[in-house]
Design goal:
alpha/beta; eight-stranded mixed β-sheet
């Protein structure tokens, strides 16, 4: 295994150069002396050992080369010194271009800008080099390759006690950041046209995912298929981390392994095994470029390709050779990768698959078939190998990395993965087809999305449920470097005695039963959300929210105001809207505050909205203005509402606009004999007096705001506070901050209250 030893020596050289600050000529001299010794036959033949399959001097040559590469990489920092010199020097004007796909998030947009020119306030213009991380508001669209002018202050990346963000950015070649500068686009695009085209295609597919799927299922589909995993509401994101299943929601070696297995299974029915494997690797490479082509994605594609190679050739030695070589090759391009957590996890997970997956599978199959000779024993062994033993094999080698960096051990890992993994191949196939075909035929893509949705919903619900167990994970004491070394020494020492066995996963899925099951779930989803003649109001337990979803007796849906977080709001809406009905018939804006409307700007991109009614002025705050502009851009009709105006939703629902009280516009909901008031963030003294003067007797009252003072003798008897109460509630009152998301249902006679 000469390639293995050379790659290991190269990686050791990278580590030594980081530990000992020797000049480049020192490491270069070591390499030259070793190369000269190898070129001189007497020395080359003398310096050999029996256990090493190559001349001994080849090791210091590879070691010196790795150290030299790291030292030269560190010297590139000097090329950015002219840019770094302007840190904390006040306002400057920077010209550059967006040299990486934009990172679009809910609250911010992060741009990696390659600087070209800097202009100081005094008029001094100079050429500069280096990458700058720019943080902007999310309301303006930026694209890869776009040139722009930035006016703001240059600063070094921030640091924190828990995580060195500065070190993380420096590994990406970024030593400078600008936070919320004034940005102006410039003519003349730059960059690679292929990357620009692939990024445009990815963004179009992302828009389709948000149209086809409700949240948070859209976030899961976007994460596992497009590498865009920023839309998860925080509780669900934490649930994936707690249960040890976060590898599902991002493009990782796991996703690439599923992709390679799916491609190989499909192409293997058409082509010979060698051709199918080659085409599968090409498909993985193209897919890696489509989802961004950043180092983490390319690394995942390469590592999963090696896992595929190991399974095909059935030889761990060749796979270890390829693993070591690929790790060294990646570090040749970026020698700071060994300090990257995702790189460590990718390498160690692949190592675990190579060393342990086949032996564990072979031993389990042999034991099971010897004890039970029934036909189902082999099928059970194959399923266990694919969904349990593979996870266990990867966990053996990644556990020290996880403990060292995160100090958390997931107790539910071996439970969650076997329950979740069987659904992922079908989810990737159906989800991928829904987006791929949806680009050409949106109606067909929506139908396929309907079949994929139950799988995504199952995954999210299961992870969320498992995370709520108090024993889902344990927080452990610090796991130091010495403990990591000792762990690997013990485990790999025992591994040397193991013998590899062939492992061939058996795929025996019942496609007919699976298709019928998915169709049944989809059909029941449509049945449950069909119009039932009742009025439904969903009151969401979200921070600083005023959102109320109204589903009329005729099935129309109206969203009243919103919440600061679009991801959290859309995740709640996903529970109350049918999967094939990604439509809101109307939105109604009644709040004078900016916070409850901030999430609506992003939600507009995820739903088909029929019309927006404004009960407040569109220029009340900057958020109101941005929302109005977003509506204009999307071509959504807007209509102002006047006091006493009535919105009729047939067959039997009317919403009356009442006079504003402290800027908030209340609504009177009338359905049959039911009268319900939806007010704002203050006790509606004037509104109640107005309704009393008109002879209106309320059956219920909804307040929307934190800490509202509610009189002890408040009427009506049934009331709901959307938010956290600031004092004990009167009898008959509930609060979402105490009881969670609530749903009011009425048949026009009675008002019923339910919990989610």
């Amino acid at each position: 295994m000469p390639l293995f030893w050379l790659a290991l020596a190269f990686l050791s050289g990278v580590g030594l150069a980081a530990a000992f600050s020797l000049p480049a000529w020192g490491w270069g001299g070591l390499s030259l002396l070793s190369a000269a010794g190898l070129a001189w036959p007497p020395v080359r033949h003398r310096w050999r050992v029996s256990w090493l399959p190559l001349p001994l001097l080849a090791l210091p040559l590879a070691l010196g080369t790795g150290a030299l590469r790291y030292t030269l990489h560190q010297s590139t920092h000097n090329s950015t010194q002219r840019l770094i010199a302007w840190h904390a020097q006040g306002q400057v004007t920077l010209t550059g271009w967006i040299c990486a796909p934009p990172d679009r998030r809910e609250r911010v947009t992060l741009l990696t800008v390659c600087a070209e020119q800097l202009e100081a306030p005094a008029g001094n213009i100079q050429k500069v080099q280096g990458r700058v991380l720019v943080t902007l508001w999310p309301f303006q669209t930026w694209d890869y390759g776009q040139r722009l002018e930035l006016r703001g202050a240059l600063n070094p990346p921030e640091e924190s006690e828990a995580f060195s963000y500065r070190a993380y950015l420096e590994r990406r070649g970024i030593y400078t950041q600008m936070t919320y500068p004034l940005a102006r686009p410039l003519p003349g695009p730059r960059g690679n046209p292929l990357i620009a085209g692939l990024e445009a295609l990815r963004q179009r597919a992302y828009a389709l995912a948000n149209r086809f799927y409700p949240q948070p299922e859209a976030a899961l589909v976007s994460g596992i298929l497009l590498g865009l995993d920023e839309d998860f509401p925080l509780p669900l994101e934490r649930a994936y981390q707690i249960t040890g299943t976060a590898h599902i929601i991002a493009i990782s070696g796991f996703n690439m392994t599923l992709l390679s297995g799916t491609l190989l299974a499909v192409l293997g029915r058409i082509f010979p095994l060698g051709t199918a494997s080659f085409l599968s690797l090409i498909g993985m490479g193209l897919y890696a470029l489509l989802v961004g082509g950043d180092p983490a994605v390319l690394r995942a594609a390469l590592m999963s390709g090696l896992a595929l190679l190991a399974r095909l050739i059935g030889r761990s030695s060749a796979a270890l050779n390829a693993l070591a070589f690929s790790a060294a090759l990646l570090c040749l391009f970026n020698p700071t990768l060994p300090w990257d957590v995702s790189f460590q996890l990718s390498v160690m997970a692949t190592l675990g698959l190579i060393l342990y997956a086949e032996p564990l599978q072979s031993a389990f199959t042999r034991t099971l078939t010897q004890r039970w000779r029934a036909p189902w024993a082999g099928r059970l062994a194959a399923a266990m190998g694919e969904y349990v033993l593979v996870t266990l094999a990867a966990q053996v080698t990644t556990l020290p990395v996880l403990l060292a960096h995160f100090r958390r051990f997931s107790l539910s890992l071996l439970i969650a993965n076997p329950l979740i993994l069987p659904a992922q191949p079908a989810l990737m196939v159906l989800g991928g087809l829904s987006l791929l075909i949806g680009l050409l035929a949106p109606a067909v893509g929506q139908v396929l999305a309907g079949l994929a949705w139950p799988l995504a919903a199952y995954t999210n619900r299961l992870v969320l449920g498992l995370s709520q167990n108090a024993l889902a994970s344990l927080t452990l004491p610090p796991f130091e470097f010495g403990s990591v070394v000792l762990y690997y020494a013990v485990v790999l020492g025992f591994t040397l005695a193991w013998r590899q066995a062939a492992w061939r996963p058996a795929l025996r899925g019942s496609l007919l039963i699976g298709a019928l099951g998915l169709s049944t779930v989809l059909a029941w989803n449509g049945v449950l959300y069909r119009p039932d003649g009742n009025l439904h109001l969903a009151l969401f337990d979200l921070p600083d929210s005023q959102a109320v979803l109204i589903r009329a007796p005729g099935g129309q849906t109206l969203l009243l105001d919103g919440a600061p977080s679009a991801n959290a709001l859309d995740a709640q809406l996903g529970h109350y809207l049918p999967v094939l009905g990604r439509r809101l018939d109307a939105m109604l804006v009644t709040s004078p505050r900016a916070a409850p409307l901030e999430g609506l700007i992003l939600s507009l991109q995820r739903y088909e909205v029929g019309r927006v009614f404004w009960a407040t002025a569109t220029a009340t705050t900057r958020t109101h203005t941005r929302l109005a502009r977003a509506l204009d851009t999307a071509g959504i009709p807007q209509q102002p509402l006047a006091t006493a105006q009535v919105l009729d939703l047939p067959p039997d629902l009317a919403l009356t606009v009442l006079p504003a009280e402290q800027g908030q516009v209340p609504l009177l909901v009338h359905h049959g004999r039911l009268d319900l008031l939806i007010a704002g963030a203050v006790w509606p003294t004037e509104t109640l007096a107005h309704l009393n003067a008109q002879g209106v007797t309320l059956d219920g009252l909804i307040l929307r705001g934190e800490g509202i003072a509610i009189p002890a003798d408040a009427l009506p008897d049934l009331g709901v506070l959307v938010g956290q109460p600031g004092q004990p509630l009167p009898p008959g009152w509930l609060a979402t901050g105490l009881h969670g998301t609530l749903e009011l249902t009425s048949d026009g006679q009675n008002l019923r209250l339910g919990w989610r």
